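Handout for the seminar on molecular recognition.
Each group receives one record of this type.
Step one: identify the two inputs.
Step two: read the structure output and locate the region that could contact arginine.
Step three: write two sentences on what you found, then compare them with the reference statements printed after the record.
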Amino acid sequence: MSNKMWGGRFEAAPDDIMTQINASIDIDRRLWRQDIAGSKAHAAMLVKQNIISDADGQVLQNGLDRIAGEIESGQFDFKTELEDIHMNIEARLREIIGDAAGRLHTGRSRNDQVATDFKLWVRDACDDLIMQIEGLQDTLHTLSKEHDTTAMPGFTHLQVAQPVTLGLHLDAYWHMLSRDKTRLADCRKRLNKSPLGAAALAGTPFPIDRDMTAQDLGFERPMSNTMDAVSARDFATEFLFCCTQCGLNLSRLAEEIILWSSSQFGFITLSDQWSTGSSIMPQKKNPDAAELIRAKTGRLTGNLTQLLMVLKALPLTYNKDLQEDKASVFESFDTLTLCLSATNGMVATMRVHKDKMREAALSGFSTATRLADWLVMNLNIPFRDAHHITGQIVKIAETKGCRLDELELSDMQQIERGITEDIFNSLRI
Ligand code: ARG
């Protein structure tokens, strides 16, 4: 039998493989709440505009509520032959309420319907991720305050550069996450215009009220160009970029956690809850969660690239290619959610070895820049010369095999006579 929803002109049923390639229900079933909300708003508007009767409107609302209950409680039977979430819900509506179901799609197309549902979903996802990021930021903030005097080496080129504090280092991630948050908020703001009412691409002759449905669904206003409304997916690529960038930031922290927890660094020990063992080496404690967060950046980047490629050179307006827009978005949301929670758990429970960090902060002549600055500030030596003098002092320490603060004052005076005991305040941390 041909398809009940659009098969009027068809004689034969689609091939099984055609049904398979055409179906998106396994993925877009996640849009069910948004689809029902969109349909309820559309039905209410059709009533208000006298396009359908009050009675039909009421029956539609009740039917849609009942379907929401069925899906919520796991009783809904999703069917591949009904392609997607929109047709699954509409077909079920017909089973429940009969012919009135056929009036729901008046003045609407699946093209504006799916764009609306998807935008509603991404909007919620932005809000959700913003909250999750804030959770991680709170953990980082607490730790930063706790460690605002915990000395650690700051690195450039992964070589010890200058002493910093662990508080400062963690606070850097707090700031990166703040930007990730504002990026998501910005994406949310830009996407919050309603495609509903654009119909297939050219609007509809019915006297619909697009402002009403936009408002009902919490959109700022309707999208003004109907062709743009059904074709645009830049909100999804933008969302994917936001996820990728945030994941990328997490991968940098993950990499540092991996380094810091190695025996070579010994700065931190991850809690047992956030480590794994080796099946052959009994002594091992591995930072698997951090490694996976590092690796999942590949998935996030891949998802972004996938949708960019789907959209490249796609002519207006709706093309079925656009059905391939959701899997990546859902997966990136899930992946980032997992990475944010795991990072939070790892960081909140790690043990910090202050002594090891302090020791490392003094290694590698890390206070050399302070020494040079002291020469400039106290002896009015031009910085370039101070840099050179400091280099010579570093060389003495290197030869003696000691740190800068372990040198004798006379060692330094040998290079620059003006240096006084006060220099040690700059060499100790
Ligand atoms: N499942 C489709 C999608 O996700 C819904 C829109 C179908 N529109 C159409 N003209 N075939 O894109």
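Reference statements: Strands lie at 151-156, 159-165, 193-194, 221-222, 268-269, 351-352. The chain is about 60% helix and 5% strand.
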